[in-house]
Each structure stands twice: as structure tokens, then as C-alpha cells.
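User: I'm putting together a teaching handout on how sequence relates to shape, and I'd like one worked example. Could you take SET domain-containing protein from Cylindrotheca closterium, show the sequence you're using, and then write out its predicted structure as C-alpha cells right after it?

Assistant: Happy to. First the sequence, then the C-alpha cells directly below it.
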Amino acid sequence: MVFIAILAITPRYSQGIGGLHVFALVWLSLFACLSTTASCDLYLAQSTIPEAGLGVFTGISRNPGDILGAGDVCIPLLDPGTHHDDLFDPFDDFVWMGEDMGMKMEIESQVKAFCPGLDCAINCNLALINVEKHGVDFDDAGLHRSQHPGAGATTPYFNSTTKVKRRLPAGGELFKDYGDSWFTSRQKFDGVPLSDDFAVAQNLVDTAFNLGDANTDRLHLQHLFEDILIPIGEIWNLTTLKALPSSFDEVLIANREDIGMTHQPNATRSLEWLEVNGKCIDNIVPGRSTIDGAGHGAFASRNLPKGTVVTGTPLHHIPFQDEFTPMYRVVTRGQKQYLDRREVAGQQLVLNYCFGHPQTTLLLCPYGFGVNYINHNRSKANVRIRWAQNGITSHDESWLLKSPSEMLAETGAHLALDYIATRDIKRGEELFFDYGEGWEKAWYEHVKDWQSTKFWSSMYRNGRDWDSELQKLPLRTTLEALADPYPQTIQIRCHSILDEDAWTNFTRSVFEYGYPCEILDRVKGEDTDYMYTVKLTTEPHNEYDTEFESSETLVVNNVPRDAIRFVDIPRTSDIHLRDAFRQFIGLPNELMPEAWKNLKGKA
Ligand SMILES: C[S@@+](CC[C@H](N)C(=O)[O-])C[C@H]1O[C@@H](n2cnc3c(N)ncnc32)[C@H](O)[C@@H]1O
């Protein structure tokens, strides 16, 4: 997403071929790619949008509804704007609202979601949105805080997938909608057409064609577009005019299909080009690790002969780790909570997913596909890492000569790693690499220290587990809960659609949160489940929710159980555990450049 859409300067394909032929040629050339067998279903390669960095391409044609990608992790970044100095945020252009990834209840303030893989690498082209976010699952991989030293050390938000919205030819670049505000909030995109501009331009094309018989009036139409509207668009800096097709051939395509299709040729690369210049990114599927307590792991999706580049990953650079990963203590004064910046209470979970080295302050966080699932195992290691080839997947060798301070000025990916199979790997085998001696030592020490405290939390269950376990039991009223309370880590929330005649049930998706509510009463009909009377407190206007200006209390009757759910209280989930394991992955000594060693002699 430093990978950016710069629609205004996207070059158009050449003009001057007869309209209908152009249309046929477009599709012929797009689907000619199909005759070549792709060895890979998804590639990472230079975007077709100029200056937009990397992009993701499909190796096969896709239809609406197809699910792409094996599903990557999503890592919560807790209140990052508060915990770290705002001077440098390497993740800024690469994160989603935590709320959209099911993370809203992690803390009461802002949570952002760092979702490597497709979520990080797909660019936005507002004229040709062809994919959308499909969903994230929640699964703590069976790591219970009373039994596993690994509880809270891995993200439970995983399997983040992407769905196809419109037909894609083999070789087509994927584009997701970042929303108009992503463009309007960045000065460099001033004058870029927004989604409404494309809608109006499409309407203009369709209206012009509807004015008369397209065959008899064709010359008039051609004149209208070529001699009037397109030149006016070049003179006047109107975004709607810029959204119009740039030739009459394209107008014909826009009328026959839609404006998006006029952008498809420029957004498509040949499979031969992708094989040479891209990196295959679908060799990995996630699953529960075969290592007890390690959470999820990465598995080979196909046989991978020794020497195969299993995957490649660009890296976010954090020049000074201490300015990004520490989390400060939260102090409560009256009704308000403050961060005490004098006391570091822990580290952001993302640390466990990044590479570091004791001799440098630099942290490198991979956002490639599936790489964040690969666990440590020295004896069973079947992949190793090496620097990517210069110029491929954003790797710039000159960055191996820069000091961490010199990296401060720039965000975006400038370094990249390849993961190489060190032996033949069979489809379905778990992938491992060596995180290094430092990591292993830290892990064993953590396991040793952790064991003494494991009994205190044996009763803990997260809100989602409570919700499904108590699904069939009547909910306790507030009075009953005084005598028989629910655990202090959970709260009850009711669906936010308040119309009593149309109660909307929670779908159990991770994205719905509702409002805090109390159960005042319940009644059971003869043939019906319990219905509840609830007191619901709407949440005041905040950046996510514009419905209520201030908090209101409402009593609602006849609320079904499916419109009520248990949710974690903020800051109580496993990732907030004080003794959760935090340790970066060791960058091997042989990959560690001298220029980065700003802690040499101090460590
Ligand atoms: C890059 S993540 C690997 C993916 C992770 N297992 C997950 O579920 O998201 C690194 C973290 O995985 C866990 N891990 C990796 N290898 C492990 C091992 N051999 N034993 C225990 N935990 C391991 C640790 O919590 C580590 O900090």
C-alpha cells in the first residue's frame, strides 16, 4: 500500500485499432495467457501501477466468488500511535482498522491490524476493483493460558482470505478497494478520480449510447468523445473527466462491458513475465503446527524439490526497535485511563514475527505470504533464508550498506528475503527454519520460568468459548449474576440494531460487537427459547461508529439469545498476559551486514 494506485498516470493501451476489434483483441490477448500453463496460482511482482511497488497477480483466470490465498495471519498492533513515537511508522500504509479484523475488543482505544500476505500487498485501482476482503477466523490453536507457555505468543486472528469480485484473466493484477478517503487523505493523490467519478463517467458513456441507435449515430458519438469530451478532460482538471475512457475504442469497451474493462489490458502481465520476474506465493498453507504449543504452522501446498524458492517476502524496516515495540503501563485515574510512559509493561506481539539481531536496533518484519506461519525447529529445519536477488520483490542491495539511522527517512519495502528448500519437501509436510541460538535460549528460559505460575488461570475461557458453551443455558439476570457472577474477563453485548420488531442476530462472525448490555429479565414461552429484557447502553460517537453522538440507555424487550453474546473485556485476552513470550527471530550472522551493527560491543 506504499504500493499505491495512481490512476491519473496509468498509461492507456495504444489507440487507433478499430473499436470492435480492439474489444476482441483485448480478450484474446488476456485469455491467450490461459494457453500457457501457469506453474503457480499467485505471484508477487512489480505492480502494473507506476511507482506503486509490488502487486499480486493471479496465475489462472478467476471468477467472482473464488477465494484467493491460503489465509494469512493478522497481528493486532495495540494503540500504536500512543505507544510509539509518531515520527516513523513503517506500518502506516500497510494496516487495516483492527475493528474490521475482529480486534475491536482487544483494547478500549485504537487497534490496528497488520495482516501480512494478500492483505498487505494488493494495490488499489478504483477503476478496476476485482477482489475484496473475505474474512478472518479466530482460533487460539488450543493454547490455553494454564497449560501452554506459548499462550499469548501467537496471534489468534488467522486465515485472512480474499474473495474475487469480478472476472480476472490469468496474469491479471488484483485490486482491492481502500476507500476514497485513502486517496483524499494523501496530498500526492490530489486530482486522482474517485469511485463516484468512475460511476458518473460510466453513466455518461451509457447515456450517450442510449441517445440513439449506436450504429447510425456512431460517428456522432465518436466525435462527441474524441473531439469534445476527451480533449476537455485534458484541459480541465476535473476528476470525472479524467475518469472517462481515453479513446473511442475504450468508450466502446466501456459501453459493452464497463469502464473497469478498459483498464484490464494494462493491469495484466504475461505468465512468462511473471515466471521470470515474479515470485510464486502459494506454496504454503497454514494449519495447526505439529509442534505442541507452537500455535499455527506452515505446510507445503505442493511437492517442493530441494533448492525451490518456497516463498519470498518483502520486509518492513523498523530502524529503532525501542521506538516501536514497547507497550507502556496503563494507569486508571477515576473513569479515565492513561499510559505511564515511564514503565514498559510488555512488547507488541508483532515482535515475535520479526527478525532482529543482538548487535542492531533494526527490526525487519516480513509481510510475505505464509512466511509468518513458519515455526522454529533446528533439527527438522527444511528451509533456510537468504537475501532476495537485487531488484526482485523490492530487494535493494544498497540497503545492506545503510545504517539504521539512514533508513529512518524512508518507509516502504527496500529489503526482501527468499525462503529456500534445503531438501526435497513433500506436499503436506510442515516447514521449519532455524530461528537461531538466541531465540531457542529465550524460549527455554521462558518455559522454565513460566511453569511456576500456570495454575492460577485454569478456569479461564475467552468470550467466544463462553458464548458457544453457554449457548443453550439461560442467561443470568443482573440480580442472579450478583450471586453467581460471570468471570471478570467477559462482558455481555447486545446487537446494535435496535429495532425491537427486527432484532438482528449476531452471525457469530468476528466482526460484530454490538453494545454493552445487562440482562434485566427473561421469559420462556411454551414452545420458544428464552426471550430477554435488556438494558443497553449505546456507545458515543467515535471514529468507527457515527450512529450515536452520546451514550444513551435503552430498555428493550423480547430480545432473542442470538442477539446477545459474550465478548472479552478489553486487555484480558491472551496477548495481554504479562508473562506472554516475546522474542524476535534471529537474523543469521551470515546475513547481518556490518553497517547495521549499531549495538556492536554493547550487546
Ligand atoms: C513467526 S511466529 C510463527 C507462527 C506462529 N506459530 C503462529 O501461530 O502464528 C513465531 C512464534 O511462533 C511460536 N513458535 C515458533 N516455533 C516454535 C517452537 N519450536 N516451539 C514453540 N513455539 C514456537 C512462538 O510463539 C514464536 O514467537
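A couple of points you could highlight for students: Residues 73, 141, 150, 153-155, 289, 291, 293-297, 352-353, 372-373, 375-377, 581 surround S-adenosylmethionine (CB under 6 Å). The two ends are 35 Å apart (CA to CA).
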